Amino acid sequence: MFQVTIGQRRTVEYLPEVRFVLASQSPARLGVLRSAGFDPSVVVSGVDEDAVAASLTDPAPVELVRALAVAKAEAVYETLAGTHADMVIVGCDSMLSINGEMVGKPLTPEAARERWASMAGKTGELLTGHSIIRVENGARTKEASGTEGTTVRFGTPSQEEIEAYIASGEPLQVAGGFTLDGRGGWFIEGIDGDFSSVIGISLPLTRRLLTEVGVSVIDLWTRPAS
Amino acid sequence: MFQVTIGQRRTVEYLPEVRFVLASQSPARLGVLRSAGFDPSVVVSGVDEDAVAASLTDPAPVELVRALAVAKAEAVYETLAGTHADMVIVGCDSMLSINGEMVGKPLTPEAARERWASMAGKTGELLTGHSIIRVENGARTKEASGTEGTTVRFGTPSQEEIEAYIASGEPLQVAGGFTLDGRGGWFIEGIDGDFSSVIGISLPLTRRLLTEVGVSVIDLWTRPAS
């Protein structure tokens, strides 16, 4: 941050334009960030998640989501290094565990049906990992990473509701087979933790990590619409 | 719901088109419902909230939010009676209590500043009331109402963050002076309860009330975009 001084008065403070890069193709993450006043650039990492997981020896879930978030931010940093003098690159990973088992995207209607049969009326633990790399004046200067856990309490949709939800296509491509911010919202009784984390990017965790690398969220806010 | 039979096969089930009427001008409530697959009609009630409150003798907060939700649905029913054969009208009211005190919209930057000074780092209780009136074949047939409480854990924004947030205008016109689904999301550490309730309309509570009046949420879903 630097100051513009007119006469003897300190008048305006500016942060040189910092580019916020979201290393994820998730439209839900982009939507959360935009609603919260950011205008992210999206650069997809193309990280081989299975290879990252295989490189770790029996990782705890928190270690795995953090390692995947770090790998994604690192890959995008490799892509972008030298292109923009000031930026923060944010990598994200999310996993859901139900009954102690990590579950991914169901992908097929059959898998989504099984998923809902086993999780209806129960709770799940949504784990999110974020990693931030800071570039200042063209040089990599700081990094920070962290994880956050949120409990999700699933409702008990009827067979007809589950079939209609699956037919909508929404649950197939998302971790755990549910969307909190879509039609799935009807079937989630509540959460204990951060709602943005469940959607895919935790705003309070991202704020803490940005602070660690010397950036305030308000410096990244776009001008309000009003 | 009725069935169309072709030959001996039951082929398609239809619910005659039910109009979902949101008796609220809140764009946040409309946004939650649209994201969750509904296409509501908005009809604003114009209810005098102070008069409703004054008509009750020392009401508990849950009684008050329920009474206000009922008054809004009733007012819109009076407006719409006879215009549409099949509809559900949903009235909503929300209140936030912090340190045992009910708080409304701050309206001014000064009030928003005081609000955040007193609630930063603390928890609040967001109370939501909903009321539904069902009209079938032109006649009023059923009604249901209920309330839901959610705990909100506020973060500790810096002075600069609070000033920038107030300058955005977002917190002035919302109960409690915070937006979970906007820039305020950076400053909410988490919730315990239903996130849609905090935004203004609880999807799981609305689903339960719709079931009570004989309507399934999936009958009100629009065709998926995909």
From TrEMBL, chains A, B:
Its main location: cytoplasm. It comes from the Bacteria. CDD domains: Maf. Its EC number is 3.6.1.9. The keyword Hydrolase applies. It is found in: Cytoplasm. It catalyses: a 2'-deoxyribonucleoside 5'-triphosphate + H2O = a 2'-deoxyribonucleoside 5'-phosphate + diphosphate + H(+); a ribonucleoside 5'-triphosphate + H2O = a ribonucleoside 5'-phosphate + diphosphate + H(+). It holds the Pfam family Maf. Coiled coil: none annotated. Its cofactor is a divalent metal cation. The active site is at D93 (proton acceptor). Keywords: Cytoplasm, Hydrolase, Nucleotide metabolism. NCBIfam families: maf. Nucleoside triphosphate pyrophosphatase. May have a dual role in cell division arrest and in preventing the incorporation of modified nucleotides into cellular nucleic acids. HAMAP family: Maf. Belongs to the Maf family. This is Nucleoside triphosphate pyrophosphatase. It comes from Amycolatopsis oliviviridis.
